[in-house]
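1st attempt posting a full record on here, be nice pls
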Amino acid sequence: MTLEDTLVRESGIDIVRHAIVSEYRIQVLVSDILNIPREILRWDKDARCRYVECAKKGTQTIHRARAMIVGCAGAGKTTLLKRLQKRSLHELQQVQSTIGLEVHEEVFEIAEDKADLRSFTDNSNKEGKALLSVMDFGGQCAYYACHQVYLSRRAFYLLVIDMSKSFNERIDRKFCDQEETMFADWTYGEYILFWMKSVHMYCDETAPVILVGTHLDKSTGQTTDTFYNSILEHLRFDKNLKKHLDRKRCFLVGLHSINDPSFNDLSDLMFCIASIAKEDRWKETIPADWALGESTLRYLRGQNRRIISKAEFQKECFGTIIEKYEQVPDILKLFHEIGVILNFREGVLSETVIIDIQWFVDAFKNIITDLNNVMDNVKNEEDWQNFYQNGYILDSLLEEIWSSKSFNVGSFKPKILQYMQRLGLLVVGDNQHYIPCMNKCTFDAAHEDSFKRWKNKTSVLVLRFQFLPYFIFCRLVVACITRTDGEWGFLNDQGLRLFKNVACFAYKGHGVALAVNHSSIQVQVFKPGNSFLEKKVTLEVRSTIERLLKELTGTFHKEIMYIAGYQCSMYEVFTEYNGCFVEETAIQRKGQMVCPRHALLHHHVLCESDILGYWKQDCGIQNAVEAASRQDNFIVAYEEGLRKFNFKTFEHLTKVGRDALQIYFDKEFPLRDLVSMSSRQENFRKVFRLNDGQCAKLFPADKSNPSSEKFDVTMMYTMLRNRYPRLQAPTKGWGRTPDTSDIRLTDDVERIRIYRNEIGHATEATSKLEKKELEEKARDLMEAILRLSNGVLKQEMMNALEGRT
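the predicted structure (as tokens):
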């Protein structure tokens, strides 16, 4: 039964008209039964009805599969594609690393009688044929920002992995320049997780992933089973990612010599690719007029057209049959959503269609090229280096780059920039443009200290994702600038503005700080002077951020949404403490409660109004005078305690210092990291230079999970010190006494070690230190404790000052 026959039956029409957007499985079922593009079922009722009416007049079935080749730089992705195309050895030897993204439209035909790949060259005769397009993704992290244009559920994936590299090995900079980016010092294993999570996020649970292990000739002892098992072990903490894999979709390839029969023997892999591409999931039936639209787009691309107006398209498609022009917006909407064109139904963008996406992506990738592909013919190297560091590109440099690559932009430049801004790739300016993914400026210790001086701040709102691709933060920054009706401006106070991981804005007399870390986007609102924060403003900030995130993640897999929560202690927005995240639902309507994360360790008490007061409409704010009084009471008690201070209380205080060090240690070594080390004990023993006793604590003989509560100061200090290069070294370096003006957290780690040693090796002389000198040491130690624990241990400090433990 054809789709046309089905649609004219009341049941079929009714299903299409009333498909519910939120019920994903119903959409899939209806789409599979009727071979209707799944995107149609997410449209509103009127649009679905228009589709039905068009389909009644005639339909055409198309079979177009799409494969994405992804993986780390240098893994052999392009070489694999050339081998699938059965290119010569000479051509393979000439392969260079892919820059950005290469689109190979409909390069393979799937045979009707068997699952086999055939190179397709007859562009004039495509009707009734099953065709496969292939996208070759560049593995350099600089280009990940433009991958969003193509990653979608309308594809299956070949994840290419270099088997000669250990999962723990850091990627070679000659393949991927990661320095000063959010990907700095990533390992090959982290990139595997990145790609698997990217597939899961942009697609759905049914998106197949084919594992291809390359460089078999450089590996020893690898078999398909051992390689597949190692991937499963690497993904053991996320069962959802394993749903994309199948042992039958795992292959090993190597390049030995031309005399080796395995040189061109990719028959099993080709059979697997063809089998997936042949599935009915890629077969869809659309109205005949819409199929004519696809043919028209193909013809225009063949004429080297890049951008056209909507008026040009409807005239090329339907000529003088004006009554058919009303179908054009729906046709463009469908082809935009399935990734064939770019056309947004907003303002001036609605009148323009980018029909050559490869050309558009080339325009962007030529701007954001990394150091390995830097353009030698850029005349003003200083301007380029400034752009490469801070993300601000002068308009004159942009034109120079495009012209130096013989990239014919011409009068299309304003439209290209508008589209790039709409996609969240950049912010268009007058004389310069801002590209967040190129910003390598670090929010360093000086900026942190500047931020800490703001006294009036909200708690830290944490939006925690199951998987958070860094470039969502880049797109959010662009959206805050471009989609807030000009109300969000730049904050220039104290040099706080835009960094690779923090962005500061001004909004209605308040400052708004956004920060990104491994799993969360964090928000904090602050205000200068002694004036109080306005709850109306903080609620508007939250509403705006959540609205923008909903728009940016609207096409994501339904499970990839965030959980709202808070840092249970008053940490700053730019810090990530995984052990201090408490979900919003766990705090609401609880008044005062023992912290669910720290109850046993620190008897930490949460006040609902302090944490939720500025972020929830139905939660009252703690009286500002009372809150200030509580702070003043602590300061009074702090100073009173110092006046009574003696060597014995200093000894008590060093024990609190040990607990502060543990809080910081737990942030840098979360339990999941400690557990993962157990499988490679000998390796980590050497990395962290642990002795037998310390190894026994880190790797318990009974196979139970290690606990930092059992680690002493020496062990935690040793592991933190050897966390290089992830941790920034103390100001004067490891093993040296910091000055009181040195306030990096690693400076405080040194302080805890030094003062613990002073107590541990105390002599009669040191126990009789002058009160002034002892008080200075105590003040220095307590400030270190406050910073490392971010205020969690205030009560423990007061107990120590009063001589109680």
